[in-house]
Design a protein that fits this description.
The protein has 22 helices and 23 strands. By secondary structure, the chain is α+β, with helices and mostly antiparallel strands. It is globular.
Length: 760
């Protein structure tokens, strides 16, 4: 009997087998360090009370000297402060009956807006207050009290509950509520009531110099000093290092203890911190119906939810920090992901961790044991809305009250239908107290069937239709708009920069601003979802009718209403833009999940499949000796040329995710190679979630450049690509990975700017 016992004892001395997700995570994180996305970081993966993986990568510091990252490195948490310190502190006061979520902020801060504001505590916690993203930093100011006074004087830019605007000011005010109610600043209150009871030994604001050797530095400032143990967020620095939105420093292990308390219903090591009901309120959607979902502090399903990845379900929750930190928690599997980096070191713009967070989360979710094996409940994924209402549907439901008494000009085409298939012209002509006085039609004409350079004026139901695609005339003139009280825009866009309906919108905004007409934009879904953003960024010298806004990538991830707000903001048009928002639409929805009728938006996009392929395939449409399928039965689903080595192309592209290319021949009836049978590729998307049209388009072009470099004049498609560096890189044989990395880096400023106009 002693032999089995001895074997068991010897087995216990062997090192434990690595967690099954370790190899994948190591590859992903080590590549991020090698690529320069991050200098280094710490990843901690847990499930319930078990730590599955805890590892450091790369460097804690690059300047003034290189220091390797360690698992106990202390990081600037940035906006994780909101959910680790401020939101739970407020919830404690709610549980004690000292604060009510639906009380006005002025109950606790009577100086806020001079005591007159409908904004509630709940609005602050969920980022639906309507306040701006941050306080002005110029002219330079200093002091905690100064920051609070500035927050008191802030003028909201939207009504409470109207729009999701991620705002640091919300949490500056929440921390001040804690101070006014308890007499303690947020750092002292959180230390006494959260960090110390939970054993978060390194979690603190304004850490002492003695800890500097363990702290990851952040940005190198213009004067050459490196922020080291000093908060990166400038507003918090101005306020002395302590604020409700940023300022916390902690290790991954500290945050792990906090998350374990949440997963255990508020208890850790026998000590209760928060109640189960309080935690449930914090982690379930508290946003207005149909808006981006936020809990009380936590992100659930908003544009900032990239750390969820592709596999954790809606219903999981988390948060991010600007410095490169993030937490994501899935109650169904009791799993959580903590990623700590200082991606802003030594330069703030050195790398984006949005994609990294998502890939890490997906790798972890894929490696987890089934929920039932962990004693968890069955995970349920969110179902798409059964009833999406477009801006037109909303306008009809309201009885056209927003336009009562107005003489309007309607900018539209055949895509302007309601969810029942009725045309907007029909509905406007029947509307009470509204007069449809003029119609303006974009490229392809009012019926959307013409694929020609000049489209003539016409009339519909006795109403003049002015063509906005008639040679050089692509804008409404003052004469066309004379006597109108408003313009109304209602056209289905494709979510792609070079799709011209958006430029028509922009031109109408410009002209309406000149004559003082408001523009009502009836919002419609981005058919390719509102989360996919990428591709080459438009340079100003190549701006044109197929590329209006410099700095915009090919896929912008915006609705047509959000585009109107962005154009007006970025170009300082001064237009009076009034978006009639959709109801029930969520950013992750594809068009076929909305329940709305599909109408071919233009002659050569005849299905959602072709629309999904369009952004990447159309990049090369400018080539004069290459077909993207125009004149065939499936434009943008076929590419070919009489010179193409189709079999070699298909082999080279066979491993691309989410798509199956195979060799076919087609005979276009028009456009390039009309009447000639040519070889090419049929493109069959197999998984639209893993398929990235822009990445595929890049691989397609890079493969052409490698296999047949002498066949293509890349300059011919410059306006569609939007910049010339990519064309030169194709000529020079650069890899798709190099080009993709540059596209992503150059798209980061747009990623930040688009966040300011998101309505959903």
């Amino acid at each position: 009997m002693w032999i089995p016992a001895l074997l068991l004892f010897l087995a216990s001395l062997l090192p434990a087998a690595p967690w099954q997700g370790a190899a994948t995570l190591d590859a992903v994180l080590e590549k991020a360090v090698t690529d320069g996305t991050i200098p280094g970081g710490v990843l901690l993966v847990g499930q319930g009370d078990r730590i599955l993986y805890h590892h450091a990568y790369g460097f804690q510091s690059l300047v003034p000297k290189k220091v390797l990252a360690r698992v106990d490195t202390i990081y600037d948490c940035a906006s994780l402060t909101k959910v680790v310190a401020t939101a739970p502190s407020v919830m404690m006061l709610v549980e004690q009956g000292k604060v009510r979520l639906d009380d006005r902020v002025t109950v606790y801060l009577p100086k806020f807006r001079k005591g007159d504001s409908p904004i509630t505590v709940r609005h602050l916690l969920t980022h639906y207050s309507g306040l701006r993203p941050d306080l002005d930093l110029e002219p330079v100011w200093s002091g905690y009290e100064t920051g609070i006074e500035k927050a008191y004087q802030e003028v909201p830019i939207a009504e409470p509950g109207e729009r999701f605007i991620y705002s640091d000011i919300n949490y500056i005010l929440l921390a001040e509520i804690v101070r006014q109610v308890t007499g303690q600043r947020i750092d002292a209150f959180a230390r006494q009531n959260l960090f110390e009871p939970l054993g978060m030994t390194d979690a603190q604001f304004d850490p002492p110099a003695a800890l500097r050797d363990r702290i990851a530095p952040t940005e190198k400032m213009p004067d050459g000093t490196v922020l080291h143990g000093v908060v990166h967020d400038p507003t918090t620095r101005y306020m002395g290092g302590v604020a409700g939105h940023a300022g916390l420093f902690a290790t991954a292990a500290d945050l792990s203890r906090y998350v374990r308390m949440i997963l255990a219903g508020g208890v850790l090591d026998g000590k209760r911190t928060l109640s189960p009901l309080g935690l449930a309120a914090m982690t379930r959607p508290q946003s207005p119906e149909g808006k981006p979902e936020r809990g009380l502090g936590w992100d659930i399903n908003s544009p900032y939810a990239s750390p969820r990845g592709d596999l954790f379900p809606v219903g999981s929750f988390g948060h991010t920090g600007f410095t490169g930190t993030s937490i994501w928690v899935d109650p169904g599997t009791k799993a959580y992901v903590i990623l700590m980096t200082n991606r802003v070191h030594p330069v703030a713009g050195r790398g984006s961790v949005v994609s990294l967070r998502s890939r890490v989360a997906s790798a972890i979710a894929a490696a987890l044991a089934p929920p039932q094996a962990q004693g968890g409940s069955q995970v349920e994924t969110a179902k798409p809305s059964e009833r999406v209402l477009t801006g037109l549907d909303v306008l009809v439901a309201e009885g056209f009250s927003r336009l009562a008494g107005k003489k309007v000009g309607l900018i539209t085409n055949h895509t302007g239908v309601d969810r029942l298939g009725r045309t907007n012209v029909e509905l406007f002509l029947r509307a009470p107290n509204v007069r449809l006085a003029a119609i303006f039609a974009p490229e392809h004409g009012f019926a959307g069937k013409l694929d020609q350079e000049r489209v003539a004026d016409t009339s519909v139901e006795g109403v003049q239709v002015h063509s906005l695609y008639q040679g050089d005339r692509r804008r409404p003139t003052p004469e066309m708009m004379a006597g109108l009280d408003a313009l109304v825009f209602d056209i289905q866009d494709m979510g792609v920069r070079f799709y011209t309906y958006a430029t028509t919108l922009a031109y109408c905004l410009e002209e309406a601003a000149k004559v003082g007409l408001p523009v009502y934009v009836l919002d419609r879904p981005n058919p390719l979802t509102g989360v996919r953003v990428g591709g080459p960024v438009l340079r100003s010298e190549l701006a044109s009718f197929i590329g209006y806004l410099p700095g915009m990538p090919v896929q912008h991830g915006l609705t047509i209403g959000e585009l109107a707000l962005l154009f007006n903001q970025e170009k300082s048009l001064g237009a009076d833009v009034r978006v009639v928002e959709m109801e029930g639409w969520r950013r992750e929805m594809w068009f076929d999940e909305t329940g709305l009728p599909w109408v071919n938006p233009s002659p050569n996009i005849r299905s959602l499949t072709q629309a999904i392929l369009y952004p990447g395939v159309a990049l090369l449409e400018g080539l004069k000796n290459y077909s993207v399928g125009r004149g065939t039965d499936a434009p943008f689903q076929f590419v070919g040329a009489d010179w193409m080595k189709a079999s070699e192309m298909a082999t080279a592209l066979a491993a691309e995710p989410g798509i199956r290319p195979y060799v076919v021949t087609r005979t276009p009836t028009e456009s390039h190679f009309a009447g000639r049978t040519i070889p090419g590729l049929w493109l069959e998307p197999s998984d639209r979630e893993s398929f990235d049209s822009l990445r595929f388009g890049l691989e397609l072009a890079t493969t052409l450049a490698r296999l047949q470099p002498d066949k293509v004049d890349w300059d011919q498609t410059a306006r569609l690509v939007g910049e010339r560096q990519t064309l030169q890189e194709w000529r020079n044989g650069h890899s798709s990975q190099q080009i993709w990395a540059r596209w992503k880096a150059e798209g980061e400023p747009f990623d930040r700017r688009r966040m300011t106009v998101l309505l959903y």
